Amino acid sequence: MTHGIRTDTPSPYLDGERDWRDTATRYALLPLRVFLGVTFIYAGLDKLTDSAFMSDSGAGSIGDMMRTIRDSSAIPALVDLSLKNPVGFGYAIAFGELAVGIGTLIGLLARLAAFGGALISLSLWLTVSWASDPYYYGNDLIYLMAWLPLVLAGASVFSLDAAMRGRRRQRAGGYR
Questions:
Q1: What 3 state SS string does the chain have?
Q2: What angle do CA 50, 125, 110 make, to 5 degrees?
Q3: What are 67-82's pLDDT values in tens digits?
Q4: How far is it, in rounded angstroms, from Cα 79 to Cα 103?
Q5: Distance between CA atoms of 44 and 48, rounded to whole angstroms?
């Protein structure tokens, strides 16, 4: 005996003709966006407030970390480039993470922010966590994969991008 569920009846709890699946689809990337935004803001602030990290050498410094991972990275030349000025590289990563996190969290230029997050994660995967064995122990690869849906879809809800898009539509008479 087969039982069916009627899917053509709109839910009385949602406006218009949308059912719960449409709403879930619309908000599906919001938890990922919040997680990645908060995580990258935290990572950037953590680096900026850690005086040991923002130094050329010493325990916990960006310089020592880069020298340690140089020979095990996929692209040693990228590590060599960062070793020319480890503190400057540390600040670039920290401010990049902050910009990516804020842009992602508030949804401002969300696709560009997500692309920046993917680039940061890719560079960290190819350098810092490349030697993780098995590969899925390296968290940077997971972050890279998590950024890709946001690169493709952007921030459709609760974002400045969506608010600006709505204003443009309103000014254009609803045709955009």
A1: CCCCCCCCCCCCCCCCCCCHHHHHHHHCCHHHHHHHHHHHHHHHHHHHHCCCCCCCCCCCCHHHHHHHHHHHCCCHHHHHHHHCCHHHHHHHHHHHHHHHHHHHHHCCCHHHHHHHHHHHHHHHHHHCCCCCCCHHHCHHHHHHHHHHHHHHHCCCCCCHHHHHHHHHHHHCCCCC
A2: 80
A3: 999 999 999 999 999 9
A4: 27
A5: 6
